[in-house]
Design a protein that fits this description.
The chain contains 13 helices and 9 strands. The longest helix is centred in the N-terminal third of the chain and has 15 residues. The two termini are 32 Å apart. 44% of the residues are buried. The model has no long low-confidence stretch (mean pLDDT 93).
Length: 304
């Protein structure tokens, strides 16, 4: 495993230094792209899993944090500019990746800011290796994929996942579900709360992310619940109760009802700091300045 600098001519950037981390999974080497920006205490930014997942959704927040932190923002394997091979994407891959990446890039406890579905993976690593993180900030945390949240059984979800993974029909189904009009609909439904921010140019950039070779494989795994690191709410809450490091949760006031109910159960646990701000599941991208204002005391306070 190694890390290398990448030219910005071959990688998109939010203004930092773009690097690659070469990671091996089951005798296959994956190229993982990450970006560093700023100086100060180390802080890892993990984007949410989604069809449009990319470290760039963390870009504005990263720039706001950069005066006080050395930011590392990563594209998960299978997403963003990282390799997207046709693996059977499942929790074991991301559990091992996060553990290996943190060990390779950092040599002391770090602050981690994780959005959406990244929450479970961070919590699991924090419980397994308590010295990994000095504090944890979760942004609109979720633990259950879209299809299971809608009530689909594991059998139905598995059939859908198999169809999307198939060579010809799968490509057609994936393209139907990543048209610019559909992406715009989904953003309006549960990602952003201000429709004025969902401009044609914004959606075009998101669409471009979805059209990379191999993009459908990890995306299908997420949508169908195959990246759910826990299967029950009780398991998710138990992870939080087992933590030994400070935890703060940011909730969007316009979050979808089912997701909001799950988040409310999380922040009701003893010792969990929380705040509600404008936005929905994409609050870190839609309202980065509001996020920073709400969490900077937690991130910078020495007693944490």
């Amino acid at each position: 495993m190694s890390t290398n600098l990448l030219s910005t001519s071959v990688a998109t950037s939010f203004g930092g230094v773009v690097q690659e981390y070469l990671w091996n999974w089951e005798n296959q080497q994956l190229r993982v792209v990450y970006e560093t920006l700023g100086k100060g205490s180390l802080l890892l930014l993990l984007p949410a899993f989604s069809t449009v997942s990319t470290r760039l959704e963390m870009g504005e927040l990263a720039k706001l944090l950069a005066p006080n932190f050395q930011i590392v923002a990563v594209d998960w394997p299978g997403f963003g500019e990282s390799s997207r091979p046709s693996l059977n994407y499942r929790p074991e891959i991301y559990q091992q990746f996060l553990e290996d990446f943190v060990k390779a890039v950092f040599n002391s406890p770090i602050t981690v800011v994780a959005a959406g579905h990244a929450a479970s993976y961070v919590l699991q690593l924090a419980v397994k290796q308590p010295a990994t993180f000095s504090r944890i900030l979760l942004l609109a945390p979720t633990w259950r994929g879209p299809l299971p949240t809608m009530g689909a059984s594991q059998q139905i979800a598995g059939i859908v996942r198999g169809l999307v993974r198939s060579p010809i029909l799968g490509q057609a189904l994936y393209k139907l579900n990543t048209t610019q009009s559909f992406l715009s609909f989904m953003y309006r439904r549960h990602v952003f709360s201000d429709a004025a921010k969902i401009t044609p140019s914004f959606i075009e950039k998101k669409w471009h992310t979805t059209q990379q070779p191999g993009a459908r494989f990890a995306s299908a795994a997420f949508v169908t619940g195959n990246l759910d690191a826990v299967q029950e709410q009780s398991d998710f809450l138990e992870l939080v109760q087992s933590l030994t490091v400070p935890l703060m949760v940011v909730i969007g006031e316009s979050s979808p009802p089912k997701s909001r109910k799950e988040m409310n159960a999380l922040v009701a646990l003893p010792g969990v700091r929380s705040v509600v701000i404008p936005g929905s599941l994409g609050l870190h991208e839609e309202y980065p300045a509001v996020v920073l204002e709400a969490v900077q005391d937690f991130l910078l306070s020495p007693e944490n």
